[in-house]
Structure formats: C-alpha cells, structure tokens
Amino acid sequence: MKEPARILVVGGGYVGMYTALCLQRKLRQELRRAAVEVVVVDPDPYMTYQPFLPEAAAGSISPRHVVVPLRRVLPHCKVVVGEVIALDHSARCATVETPATKEDGTGGLQLPYDELVLAPGSVSRTLPVPGLAEGGIGFKTVEEAIGLRNHVLEQLDIASSTRDPAIRDAALTFVFVGGGYAGVEALAELEDMARYAARYYHNVEPADMKWILVEATGRILPEVGPVMGQYAVRELRARNIDVRLETRLESYEKRVAVLSDGARFPARTLVWTAGVKPHPIIAASGLPRTERGRLRCTAALRIEGVEHAWSAGDAAAVPDLTAEGPAKPDEPRRECAPNAQHAVRQARVLADNVAAVLRGEPVVDYAHKYAGSVASLGLHKGVAHVYGRQLKGYPAWFMHRVYHLSRVPTFNRKARVLAEWTLAGLFKREIVSLGSLEHPRAEFELAAGTGRHHEAS
C-alpha cells in the first residue's frame, strides 16, 4: 500500500492552525482516502488569539476563550504536542521532543515528511538589561496575561496592607517597556482595571498609582499612523499615564527601573513587550534567511531556492506585491509586515498552493493590500486607521472589537466572547486575584509539612 503524502506543519499559531484548517477542507477527499496526512506540531495543544490577551488580563474575557483547541478544530489532522528540536530538510525529517520523549529518554520522535510548512512564529526579544531576566514579566502567552492580572491585583493588596511607604510606592508603580500593540493595549486595559479595583480599597486611590510607558522611538503604535499615534499619547497622558518617548530601560536591578533619561522608579512590576524575534528553530534549520533572521520566501510562499518547503507569518519575509513606490536603495524588496492580518491571509494562500502542488496544479502568488490597524486604549477608548480613515474614541474601540470578533476562529469562540462582552456590560468587573493558581500544590505541601509560604510576587 502506498504511503500517504505527509504534510508537516511546524507551529500551531495563526499560520500553522489556519493552514492546517484550510488543508483539511481543501484535501477532504485525499484525507478520507488516506492519500494525505497532515501533522501539526506545537508545544501547546491550542492556538492563542493574541489580540485578546489584554482583555483577558483585564478580566473582560475568560482565559479559556482566548485559546482555540487544535484537536477540536483540526479533527482530520494529527496534532503532536511537542517542539521541533532539529530539522534535516535534505532528508525531509524533523526531530520532535514531546512530553513522552522527555520521560522515556529516547531523544526525540522522528517525523518524516513530504511537504514542510515552517511557521513556528516568534519569541520575545530581550536585551542584556541588568535585572530584566530576573524581574521582568513577558506578555506573549495567555499564562503571562493571567499571571500579570493576578500580579497587578496582588500589588494593590500589598499596598493596602503595608505601613512601609517605600514598599507601598513600589507596589503601586507599574512600568511597561515597548510602545507597540502589546505594550500599549496591555497597559491601557490593566490601568483601567486597577483604577476600577481601587474603589474597593479603603486606602488606595487611583492617583496613588504610577503607570509608566517607556518607548525607545519617538512614537507609539506606528501601525495606526502618526496622527493617531500622537492622539494615543495625549489620551494616555490625560489619564496620568507617564509616556516617555525616545527613552530606554537601562537596568532593573533590585526592582528599580533606571531609564536612559536619568529617571529611577522603584517598581515591583516591569512588563517587557519591546519586540519579538524569529523562533530559534529558524536559524537551526539551515534554510535561507534574511539579515533579520526571517525565512526568505517567494511571493508564492515557498522558501526561496528550496523545494517542498513553505512558510508565512512572523517567521517569513514575504515580498509585498502591493507596495506602492520604489524600494529604498538598501532595501531590494518591500516585505509584508509580520502581523496577524497578513498571517491569516497568507495561510489560506499557502494551503491552496500546497494542495495545488500535491495535485500537480499551478501555484499562485500572495498579494494583499494592507487594510489598516485598530488598537484598544481601554474600555470604550481606542484608535484606528482603516482604509485611509482615522477613528478615535468609542467608534475606534467598537471597530476594534467587531474586527477581532470576526477574526477569532470558530463560531463557538465568537459566541462565547460576545456573550462575555455582553455580560461585562451589564455587571460589575471581576477584581479577584487568583495568584495561588500559579502554585497549585503549595497548600498541600504546607499541610504535608514539606512546603514553604511562597514569597509575594
């Protein structure tokens, strides 16, 4: 019996999940005859819809509705929970470390393939800032978002219960580094939540809190354009949020944030959202890359100069066929921005092209003109630059919600998110910290006489 053609999808994010989803629709007949097998490998059994992380952190959406279970939406694909630790494309084989291989010490599962879709996404880009690795908090996963929510509410508890002014000030100082979507939206949503929560503390006022946004360039939210970016700065500053442009974090030793402008802030909270970099497996693959470490791809989403290998999204440098105007001399080609809007659309074209190759049909190029961007600045506040039109305030916030509700996968998730938004509009916010979830065995260990009280984060 002839072996099925195996399509290996590395990564279960936007590109990985949407590519597999489109493949199982496009190749329905082949999958039914077992002529094709689609294998998806990702360290997590779910896809995280990252634009909803700020709202999950603020408690507007339940964490379980920010993630999409891969096995539920990909019933005709094989989902392997694990991480690709080695890739030999010349032999068309990937080595995958799964929870089972860690236990049995076999050194990894060998997965041969016929077509490779390499879309592991990106990881947080950190800098060698003293103290950052020890005390910083990321904001890229749902676990980090919920951990940050619990941490912020815990700081209010600490400030409310201490008599030491230094501890109180540090607990009520929140520093966010990075003025892109993640940093601005996370800060805006959490500041909204903390200001609301303060009404339930008899000795904590919103004015007691310091919220600081640090951005190395001269603007925030560059995707929404300079005018809306300037409006966002004014809106944040009107809420007493300290926005510091052209400023860098120099160190965070002993929980003191030292900035390049000379300012020093004792702070128990430092959130790092200053950019991302390609996943390490990209460099380890030996496939062609650009100077920035992304996979060099053709407009058809093939990895340049390599047969049977495809990529899209954060990991891929895809030429932008709709770019207007000549490229700069030191920039031989314009590339699609590594954002969710392009990733989802590229995934559909990628799936069509992989299916076309298996069927001996011609492939097509990816061409999509960027429609614009939307960003939330907290409840009922936002900015948007869509199809050349600029919106701010409530209309932009409403457009932000409508757009992302339309983009989140599956009707099930859309219905649940809409229901939560509706209930949130009718009832008061939840302001409960469940920090103990991060140490679920602590109580049992204490009862058994082997545990210690965990230090407040």
UniProtKB/TrEMBL annotation:
- What residues does the FAD/NAD(P)-binding domain cover? 6-342
What EC number(s) is this enzyme filed under? Answer: 1.6.99.-
Give the main EC class.
Answer: oxidoreductase
Gene3D superfamilies to which the protein is assigned, alphabetical: 3.50.50.100
Keywords on record:
FAD, Flavoprotein, NAD, Oxidoreductase
Q: Which GO terms describe its molecular function?
A: oxidoreductase activity
Q: Which family does the record assign?
A: Belongs to the NADH dehydrogenase family.
Q: What is this protein called?
A: NADH dehydrogenase-like protein
| Provenance organism | Streptomyces rimosus subsp. rimosus
